[in-house]
Amino acid sequence: MAITAADIMTKDVKTVRPDASVAEVARLLTESGISAVPVCNAEGEVLGMLSEGDLLRPVGQEHATRRAWWLNLLAEGTELAPSFLECISVENQRAHALMVGPPITASPDATVPELADLLVRHRIKRLPILQNGKLVGIVSRADLVRAMVRTPDAVAEAI
């Protein structure tokens, strides 16, 4: 019998709303011991994924240099309002601005080879699992590796 996403997925999935702050997302990732989280709207639809890497992007030197160039261009030699600068600061960014979307997803009946193909083809580390458009779980690369260890015969049959 083929191993499916439903067999290996994490069912208690932590999520954030699109308006969650960088600090809120960072706190959730840290406290939950996870490296990414689905961004969901009020109806529970998955809009995108937000990872530690996505949170780090606006903090990096490359982004800071590009940001300074754009701000100089925008200011045209004048002083920018402190309230404007505060508004665009990293701390005030929201999940929807940093997330990657639309998300690559799978269904609960997707097999291990199908899940592996999606992860490799799209160069992603986790897949939200949707049933009838609603989030029911998440499968990570680590989940697939654990499945290979727990049930090597079933995985070998699927391949």
Notes on the structure:
- The two termini are 12 Å apart.
- The relative contact order is 0.22.
- The protein is α+β, with helices and mostly antiparallel strands.
- The strands form two sheets. Strands 1-2 form a two-stranded antiparallel ribbon. Strands 3-4 form a two-stranded antiparallel sheet.
- It has nine helices and four strands.
- It has a single domain (5-59, 93-158), classed as CBS-domain (Roll).
- The radius of gyration is 19 Å and the shape is elongated.
- Strand 1 (36-40) and strand 2 (46-51) form a beta hairpin.
Tags for this model:
159 residues; alpha+beta; 9 helices; 4 strands
In short:
The protein starts with a helix and ends with a helix. The protein is an alpha+beta fold. The chain is elongated.
List the SSEs and their pairings:
Layout: H1 5-8, H2 22-32, E1 36-40, E2 46-51, H3 52-56, H4 61-75, H5 82-87, H6 95-98, H7 112-122, E3 126-131, E4 134-140, H8 141-150, H9 152-158
Antiparallel strand pairs: 1-2, 3-4
Within the largest sheet, what's the order of strands?
1-2
Which architecture would the CATH scheme give at its second level?
Roll
Report the strand count.
Answer: 4
Helix content, binned percent: 40-55%
Number of domains: 1
Instruction: Give the biggest sheet.
Output: 2 strands, antiparallel
Query: Which regions contain 5 or more consecutive residues with pLDDT less than 50?
Result: 84-89
What would you give as the CATH superfamily? Answer: CBS-domain
**What's the alpha carbon Rg, rounded to whole Å?**
19 Å
Please name the CATH topology.
CBS-domain
Give the percentage of residues in beta strands.
15-25%
Q: Overall pLDDT, averaged? A: 82
Q: Order of SSEs, N→C?
A: HHEEHHHHHEEHH
- In whole angstroms, the N-to-C terminal distance is 12 Å
Question: Helical element count?
Answer: 9
Overall 3D form: elongated
Level-1 CATH class name: Alpha Beta
What is the SS-derived class?
alpha+beta
